[in-house]
């Protein structure tokens, strides 16, 4: 993350968490935030303070975070792509943004029906002794089974609301959430199977080499010691190629598909 | 090979619950931000390092970054880091831990270091790398904390031992790993039993010299890599010390070991400017020094004790007094009373210390931060008193100080006072590179100790040339030593690390003992001189020999 991206992220995060942004001299390189009670509890790690304040029923003084984004400013906590504070906030945003339900706000009032979509954003991690990841954002229409990859970027273009607009109604899903999830998994898995596995082959070769050495080392021992088993297990953990798919966040969206289809259809 | 594909479904239940209970739902903005947050933290390629970009304040040197990359990508996370002293092995290790943690390949880390370095590691990892390392203080730390720093001696003792052996470590780092060269020791066997995925062994002592050492270190890392003990001996050993198939062995070892040399790093290393001062005793000091012989002549002390006394007398009468007083109490007898009276009288007659006077003069000339090293606590106190009397404040520094006190003294020296008087290099654990003047008030007989002293200021981060002032008293044991170290083996111009290699190679780790023998057993000045000359030629021969070997090895690596 570049410094300006971090700045934007923090402004968006604290604004949506209803924290007050305080005035600063240089709003490019500085950010000052008065935390809400909830955010203070989440970020400041001072349970005893809160316990005490709540026990005596006093008015709490929530913390003010003062960030700086460059060396030009002396005052405040320097925040950058590796600072623990930033990662704490990224973690918080992931926790606070996990499950969602949204409705599309449409201009065309002639067809007020909204179709149910299941959205899952996932991280796909390829791991052996090395590791890389990519993000996979899937959307599944729960009536006809239309599937879209890159769903999050579609969502970003739509006007959405937490509440069902007055003049709209939602269509009943024919596919249950549970089988929707299974469909998405199957789709991802079949895509993964088609990928190039050179990386896994290379890892397997390294693994095999080290296993051979290990076997040779204990060759003359009739009864293999516990250490042999342990080392063998360690090699497996080090090299075994695997792909791990984990959740970032998921949601139900009620949308009018005509707004963004048909050019993005992946599967039916 | 097909990778195993695994879907994490642990979140299904809570998602269904949200749907069933119609919330609570996240805000739209936070949903997008969560996606962004994860996007910012994905690592899109297997190769390259992410860690440096997450550590904008660290500014690692290119060789450190390259080392971290090689260890991860080419050595698959199992390596010996054997850089020469002062090139920043800790930084390399930190980069490797950080990279693995960012990529999510490593969570649980155990770092075993000498007890005196535990807190330094903890503070460096936290402040420079934002790695939440904790020192092992309570038993629960082993299982509760992810990154733990401890000494081997603590970890291998019950009740810790069982708990530690029970943990599944992703990464184990062992500092000063050359101490694990003997596979029969408890420490070696303990480390061997640890469960580990990745492993780094840090050592400044090059291990090429002893075959069995290298075998056992590598076997800790990758059992079987050099065969088993038997086949290793068969393939590479010839006789008790010599090596067969050296090229092949070197090539193998180079695949699990990174060794950066000072000259290869492309960094500008500050020069060492060495000056020696041959200082004559004052009359009173000379009288006292000479009177010590009488103790030996009367058979009241062994040659070794005389040597100790003489060295102390060269340092200060205060240093000599401590030992002298002890001997006096042990040998007190009415028959000796006159002799003792005579000696103490001579001692009391000393009104000034020639070396201290010279030191004061140097400090005033230098007019900058100065570190003074002495071998003796009594001299340390005397010097502090003497300097204070002449309007110069100083702080003491002893190897035995607690970490916090060491840091405090270092701070005072850096910010407040001109002089630091140290008794021990504290070989491990204090960096004083903000100073560039060092006075060796007296000289240790083990050249490695001198190296350690100089290493405090002549290291990465030193921007100025380093000035070293050696004081020796004319016509005493000290001047012999200075001559040996300074003129004969050119110790002070050596590249750090080389000396250690030379001494290890010729089995001369205890140079100080050798020197002591020479003094004790020689009957005359002439004999001392001849024997010291012999010693220096042995060292010099090895030095030339090794530096030739080096240029070959360097060719082979490229």
Q: How does this structure look, described?
A:
The complex is a heterodimer of chains A (268) and B (558). In chain A, helix 7 (198-217) runs antiparallel to helix 8 (226-239). In chain A, 37% of the residues lie in helices and 26% in strands. Chain A is α+β, with helices and mostly antiparallel strands. Chain A folds into 3 domains: 3-96, Aspartate Aminotransferase, domain 1 (Alpha-Beta Complex); 99-196 and 243-267, no CATH class; 198-240. The longest helix of chain A has 20 residues, at 198-217. In chain A, the strands form 2 sheets. In chain A, strands 5, 6, 7, 8, 9, 10, 11 and 12 form an 8-stranded mixed sheet that branches. In chain A, strands 1-2-3-4 form a 4-stranded mixed sheet. Chain B is α/β, with parallel strands linked by helices and 558 residues long. Among the domains of chain B are: 51-264, Rossmann fold, CATH 3.40.50; 272-278 and 350-477, P-loop containing nucleotide triphosphate hydrolases (Rossmann fold), CATH 3.40.50. In chain B, strand 8 (237-238) and strand 9 (242-243) form a beta hairpin. In chain B, helix 4 (62-74) packs across helix 5 and helix 11 crosses helix 12. The radius of gyration of chain B is 28 Å and the shape is elongated. The two termini of chain B are 34 Å apart. At the A-B interface, helix 1, helix 4, strand 5, strand 6 and strand 7 of A face strand 1, helix 1, helix 2 and strand 7 of B. Chain A: This is YqhG family protein. Chain A: Pfam families: YqhG. Chain B: It comes from Sporolactobacillus terrae. Chain B: Residues 358-500 form the Helicase C-terminal domain.
Strand count of chain A: 12
Number of strands of chain B: 16
What is the N-to-C succession of helices and strands of chain A?
HEEHHEEHEEEEHEEHHHEE
Biggest interchain interface, per-side counts: A-B, 89 and 68 residues
Q: How many structural domains are formed by the residues of chain A? A: 3
């Amino acid at each position: 993350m570049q410094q300006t991206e971090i700045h934007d992220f923090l402004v968006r995060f604290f604004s949506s968490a209803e924290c007050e942004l305080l005035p600063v001299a240089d709003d490019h390189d500085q950010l000052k935030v008065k935390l809400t009670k909830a955010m203070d509890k989440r970020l400041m790690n001072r349970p005893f303070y809160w316990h005490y304040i709540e026990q005596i029923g006093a008015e709490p003084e929530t913390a003010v975070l003062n960030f700086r984004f460059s060396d030009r400013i002396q005052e405040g906590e320097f925040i950058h792509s590796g600072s623990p504070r930033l990662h704490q906030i990224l973690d918080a945003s992931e926790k606070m943004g996990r499950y969602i339900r949204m409705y599309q706000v449409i201009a065309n009032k002639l067809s007020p029906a909204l179709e149910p979509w299941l959205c899952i954003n996932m991280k796909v991690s390829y791991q052996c002794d090395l590791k890389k990841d990519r993000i996979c954002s899937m959307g599944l229409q729960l009536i006809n089974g239309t599937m879209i990859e890159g769903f999050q970027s579609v969502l970003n273009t739509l006007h959405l609301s937490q509440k069902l607009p007055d003049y709209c109604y939602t269509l009943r899903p024919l596919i249950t959430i549970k089988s929707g999830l299974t469909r998405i998994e199957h789709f991802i898995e079949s895509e993964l199977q088609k990928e190039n596995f050179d990386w896994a082959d290379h890892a397997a070769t390294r693994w095999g080499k080290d296993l051979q050495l290990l076997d040779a080392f204990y060759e003359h021992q009739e009864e293999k010691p516990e250490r042999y088993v342990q080392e063998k297990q360690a090699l497996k953990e080090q090299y075994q190629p695997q792909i791990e798919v984990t959740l970032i966040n998921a949601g139900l969206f009620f949308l009018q598909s005509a707004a963004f289809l048909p050019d993005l259809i992946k599967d039916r | 090979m097909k990778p195993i594909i695994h879907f994490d479904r642990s979140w299904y239940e809570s998602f269904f619950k949200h749907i069933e209970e119609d919330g609570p739902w996240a805000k739209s903005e936070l949903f997008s931000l969560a996606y962004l947050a994860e996007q910012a933290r994905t690592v899109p390629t297997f190769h390259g390092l992410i860690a440096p970009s997450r550590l904008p304040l660290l500014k690692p040197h290119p060789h450190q970054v390259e080392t971290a990359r090689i260890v991860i990508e080419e050595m698959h996370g199992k390596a010996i880091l054997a850089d020469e002293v002062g090139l920043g092995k800790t930084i390399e290790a930190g980069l490797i831990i950080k990279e693995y943690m960012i990529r999510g390949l490593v969570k649980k880390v155990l770092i075993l270091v000498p007890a005196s370095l535990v807190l330094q590691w903890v503070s460096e990892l936290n402040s420079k790398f934002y790695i939440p390392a904790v020192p092992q203080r309570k038993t629960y730390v082993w299982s509760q904390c992810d990154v733990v720093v401890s000494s081997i001696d603590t970890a291998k003792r019950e009740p810790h031992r069982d708990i530690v052996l029970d943990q599944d470590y992703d990464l184990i780092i062992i500092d000063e790993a050359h101490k694990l060269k003997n596979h029969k020791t408890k420490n070696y066997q303990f480390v061997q039993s640890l469960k580990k995925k990745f492993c780094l062994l840090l050592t400044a002592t090059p291990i090429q010299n002893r075959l069995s050492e290298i075998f056992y270190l590598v076997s800790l890392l990758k059992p079987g890599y050099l065969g088993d003990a038997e086949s290793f001996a068969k393939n590479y050993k010839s006789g008790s010390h010599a090596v067969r198939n050296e090229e092949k062995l070197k090539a193998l070892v180079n695949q699990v070991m990174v060794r950066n040399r000072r000259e290869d790093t492309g960094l500008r290393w500050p020069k060492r400017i060495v000056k020696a001062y041959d200082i004559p005793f004052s009359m009173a000091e000379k009288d006292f020094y000479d009177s010590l012989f009488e103790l030996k002549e009367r058979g009241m002390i062994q040659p070794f004790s005389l040597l100790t006394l003489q060295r102390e007398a060269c340092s200060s009468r205060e240093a000599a007094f401590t030992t002298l007083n002890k001997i006096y109490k042990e040998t007190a007898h009415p028959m000796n009373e006159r002799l003792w009276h005579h000696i103490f009288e001579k001692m009391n007659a000393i009104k000034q210390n020639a070396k201290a006077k010279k030191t004061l003069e140097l400090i005033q000339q230098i007019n900058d931060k100065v570190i003074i090293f002495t071998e003796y606590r009594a001299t340390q106190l005397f010097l502090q008193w003497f300097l204070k009397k002449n309007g110069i404040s100083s702080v003491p520094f002893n190897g035995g100080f607690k970490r916090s006190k060491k840091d405090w003294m270092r701070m005072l020296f850096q910010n407040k006072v001109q002089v630091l008087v140290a008794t021990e290099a504290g070989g491990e654990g204090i960096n004083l590179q903000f100073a560039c003047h060092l006075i060796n008030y007296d000289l240790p007989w083990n050249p490695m100790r001198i190296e350690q002293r100089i290493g405090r200021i002549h290291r990465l981060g030193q921007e100025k040339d380093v000035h070293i002032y050696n004081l020796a008293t004319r016509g005493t044991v000290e001047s012999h030593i200075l001559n040996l170290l300074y003129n004969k083996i050119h110790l002070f111009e050596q590249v750090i690390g080389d000396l250690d290699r030379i001494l290890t190679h010729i089995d001369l780790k205890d140079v100080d003992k050798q020197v002591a023998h020479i003094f004790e057993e020689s009957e005359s000045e002439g004999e001392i001189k001849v024997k010291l000359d012999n010693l220096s030629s042995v060292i010099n021969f090895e030095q030339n020999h090794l530096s030739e070997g080096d240029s070959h090895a360097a060719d082979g690596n490229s």
